[in-house]
Amino acid sequence: MTKADLIDEVSRVVELTRKDSEVIVETIFGSIVRSLHTGDKIEIRGFGSFRTRQRNPRIGRNPKTGDRVEVPAKKIPFFKPSKELKDLVNSSPAQPSPAAGGAPSPPHSAPAQ
Question: Which residues of 80-107 are buried (b: 16+ CB within 10 A; e: fewer)?
């Protein structure tokens, strides 16, 4: 799914214009990026958490020439999925969960006599 697909999906589900949906999606992504930039952690219950991890400086190699290259320390974004998301991804597609937008099937019971 691309960002354009996500915008279209939001527009369809919430019944907003594509332009309004684009503003919503861009605002969410911008908020996540700003929070990570300032070192904050973002936690979305039932989905996962975003945070940054520090990478130490290291010596790498230029793959073309084989020369040694110093790679500086840096922060990288890291996403950790929630247990709920992992379970949804690994569940059978024949039984969508209510959290994934599917309706639970009613229990089958014998008719009352």
Answer: eeeeebeebeeeeeeeeeeeeeeeeeee
Give the residue, 112 or 95, on which the prediction is more confident: 95
Label residue 7 exposed, middle or buried (CB < 10 Å: 0-12, 13-18, 19+).
buried
Closest CA to 35 of 52, 53, 54, 56: 52
- Under the banding of pLDDT at 50, 70 and 90, the label for residue 36 is very high
Average pLDDT, integer, range 16-42: 94
pLDDT of residue 108 exceeding 50? no
Are 46 and 98 contacting, i.e. CB atoms less than 8 angstroms apart? no
